Structure formats: C-alpha cells, structure tokens
Amino acid sequence: MILEKNEAIRSDMVKIFDTTLRDGEQSPGASMTSAEKLEVARALAQLRVDIIEAGFPAASPDDLEAVRRIAIEVGNPKHVEAGQKVPTIAALARANKQDIDKAWEAVREAQKPRIHTFLATSPIHMKYKLRMEPEEVIARVGEMVAYARSLCPDVEFSPEDAGRSDPEFLYIVLGEAIKAGATTLNIPDTVGYTIPSEFYRLIKGIIENTPGMHEGITISVHCHDDLGLATANTLAGILAGARQAEVTINGIGERAGNASLEELVMLLKTRYPVLGLKTDIDTTQIARVSKLVSTYTGIVVQPNKAIVGANAFAHEAGIHQDGMLKHSLTYEIMRPEDVGVRQSRLVLGKHSGRHALRKRLEEMGYALSEAQLDAIFEDFKRLADRKKVITDADLEALVNEERYQVRELYALSSMEVTCGTVGTPTARVQLRTPDGSLQSFTAQGTGPVDATYKAIDAIVNVPCELVEYNVHAVTEGIDAIGEVTVRIRPRNGQKKTILDAQTEEEYTRIYGGHGADTDIVVASAKAYLNALNMMIVSSLEQKTGVSSDYGVIL
Ligand code: KIV
Ligand code: ZN
Prior knowledge:
Elements: H1 2-5, H2 7-10, E1 15-18, H3 34-47, E2 51-55, H4 61-73, E3 88-94, H5 97-107, E4 113-120, H6 123-130, H7 134-151, E5 155-160, H8 167-179, E6 184-189, H9 196-209, E7 218-223, H10 230-239, E8 244-247, H11 261-270, H12 272-275, H13 286-297, H14 318-326, H15 354-363, H16 370-386, H17 392-403, E9 411-418, E10 426-432, E11 438-444, H18 448-460, E12 464-473, E13 482-490, H19 504-508, E14 511-517, H20 520-544
Parallel strand pairs: 1-2, 1-8, 2-3, 3-4, 4-5, 5-6, 6-7, 7-8
Antiparallel strand pairs: 9-10, 10-11, 12-13, 13-14
The structure holds 3-methyl-2-oxobutanoic acid (KIV) and zinc ion.
C-alpha cells in the first residue's frame, strides 16, 4: 500500500511551511514594507521554520524584490549567523510561465529555493474563474510543473480549492504533477469549507490513490479558518499522513485567515504523548514573533486567542487562581515560558542602568545595535520617570517603538491637547518634516484624537481615511503604556503632493501603524504618523522601484 511505502509518512517530523509573508500578507490591511518583511523573515528563521513562503513575485516588482532580498539574506548561509537554520525560501506563482519566471528570479539565490505553483481544480473554480475544461486543467498542470521543475529542483503544486474538488479528479491532477516532477503536493481547503473527518478522508484518499505516489513526495495541508476549523483540519490532515503544514503567525491570512502556526506547533508539542509528532520549532520564540507580526501588520491579536492572546495565560476566576497557587498544572496545560511569555515582573525601574537594560533585552531575545539601544535607553528613562515598575511587556512596547519603525519622514516633535466637557477639543501638533523643518498646526475635532489627526493631516497633506483605530493597555495599572494600532487607506480621487504617482492598486491598499506611550493621545499621534510614513515610503518604493530599507531620500 502506498501509505506505508511513503518515507515522509513514516517520519514523526512535521515540516512547518510558514506563509505569513504571502497568504498572511493577503489579510486586508496587512501590507508590510520590504524592510519589515525581511525582519519578519529573519524572525521566522530564528523560530526555525522549515520553509518560508516569502511572497507572490508576480503581484508587483516590489514583492519580487522583497522575496529576492529574503532569498539572499535569510535563505543563504553566507548571511545568516553560524549555527542558525537556513530555511527553504518559496515563492508563489500561478500556473503560467510569466509567473513562474518571476518566482524563480526571486528565489534562485537562496540555498534551498522552491517554486510553489497552483491551479484550481474544483468544478466551481474551473467553470467560473478559469473557464477551463477539466482536461485543459490536467494538461496545464503537467506543462507548468514541468516548466517550474526545469528551473528549480524543488517544486510544490497546489490544486486550489481542493476541499471542494472531486477526489477522483484530484488523483488524476496530482498524478500529472508527480509525473512532471513536483516534490511537494499541497492540498488547500481554500475556502475553509471542510470538516476534520472529511479532510482526513481526502488526504488519506490522495495518499492511497494518486498514481505515482512515492517516498520522495511530501503531502502538505493548507487550511483556511472560515468555519473556525483551520487548526483542527490541519491536524486531521497530518493524522492522515501529511507531513508539511502551511500556517501563519497569529493565524492571519485571506478572509478569516489560515491555520495558526502557534496553535499547531503547541498542539503537537503538548499532546506529543498521544500524537507522537514533532516540529523543529523553537517554541520560546513564539511570543516575540507574534508580537512582531502584529506590530508590522497592524492586526491586533484578540485577547482570548489561543497561545498568543494577552489572556492565554491569565487566570481570573477565584477558583482558578486558588488552584494555580496550589499547583500550576491545575489550570495550565502549557508553561508560559515554553512559548516565550515571561512571567517575571518588577524587572527594571528608574535606577536601572544601560547595562541592566541591555542584559534584560538580550534575555528577551532582542539583539540590538548600539544606536538602537541608545534610543531605547532614552525612552526607558523617560518611561521610568512616569512609571515605577517597567515590565517585560513595557520593554517590548519600547523595542517595537524604536526598532520596527518605518523611516520617520514625518516625526512628532511636540503636541498639546485640550479636551473635556467644556469647550471644543483642540490639538496643536508640531512635526519635523522630511526637509528637517518644523511645522505646526492647530485643529479642533470631535475629541482629542480627532483633533490631533486633523492637525497632522493639515501638515502632511496626504489625503487618507482612518479605517480602524484600536487602543489597549500593555500592562495593568493606571500608569500602563497604551498601545494604539491604526489602519488607514489613501483617499481615492485626490492625487496630491508626493503620492501623485500612485497606482490604482495602491489606492486599495491599507496601511497599519503602531504607537505606544503612557499618554494615549500621544500614542494615537505616533500610530497615525507611523501609518502615514509607511504609506508614503511604500508609495515611493513603488515609484522608484528601490526598496527603502527604512529610508527613502526625498
Ligand atoms: O488557499 C489557497 O488555496 C492558497 C493556494 C495558493 C495554496 O493559498
Ligand atoms: Zn490560502
């Protein structure tokens, strides 16, 4: 039986294929600059994922360049630290030669490049989207997988919407892909429609019935979360014999998202005695990477999200707290430290020096340059004047503030706000502009944040629309740092100033911004400026075709 002959299936290792930078970036509003993508890719390599799907190079020259840089700088032993894992770098391509050429151009400099090509196989997609007959689909898959294989030794093929495809038809298409040289067959539940028992049967059927299935083929699963079953379906696929799982950090992705990396990895680790399956992930990096992705994409992690939500290890009910004090195993199935959540409090305070700060940040996994440390130390001292106890969560917020900023074309110099029950909320904002000069504006609004944003708009003069605004406290207590996340989009039809050269695609893009401060109106201003800077930098990257590396010279 093919099932028993397949080498990958006998293995107890499940490969983690991270698609945060591709499917994850397809989440509305999740666009990142190329420098941010590179930073996330580095963090994924430190997390020890096996494959990074770095993007979809045919989508834009910008995306091609971002994938190419990741292939060179993260997928190449020349550039990674000694002893660090070098992941395979994959790029997505539709099943046509132009896309495949672009994907190859983007990944070819990686030590382990992979082309991932796909074509839909469900009746609904073939008829309405592709307008292709099933026979044409079979022929195209054979042709394009062979073409990809003529360029790259590692080719993955996905029959899109496999979850709603006829299994018998899938066996034929996948058999063609194997014949043409595919090395991984990825089975996507593209619209998150299946239930675990169905998905299990689908994967088992594919392994048992696909012609030409052999030891060298890895079966992969890629599940979307439209019905909240992405992780359950991924596990079902693995139990049926899949040995690669396609996942994203925080479960971000198209519509309701993808199966989340942290859920799957901790599920396999926590239930190892029952499942007997492992991954190579360094789970202690999970919290850090989750935070990084949330900061860059502007997509806030819901507090009750499994593994990485703020409440995942919080115990509120009296009975639970009592149990926890007696023994942590009463209500905790995983140790917070195992996912990199540190419980330590009372870490640092007003009298702590630069050395203590560096040491703590290193313990937390941040390798910072001297300049970054200097900047964070300044912020730390300012914060310590306002807040007695600085926790790890506060430090994380400061690091995110300093380290993960897109270049500050416009920076907050000072602001003054009046609000309350008497009079009209008014904000006076002073910004440092790209030419180094200071500009001020005073505006009134419906509240302090509205007034602040109006004043900023008047100075920056790039029309945009606020799509989402979120504020939350990093730690408990009245002196907590407030973290603000915003999402904005260019306001269509008003091409002005430095955004003149925008493409239509750019007008539909949403940009995320993040800011932290003990004053939430200041945090709001920082977040808005962060998003505006991102929008402008990204527009300039598109215009010049040059990746900014946090800096475009105007
Ligand atoms: O969900 C999906 O079908 C995909 C494919 C491109 C693998 O993301
Ligand atoms: Zn997908």
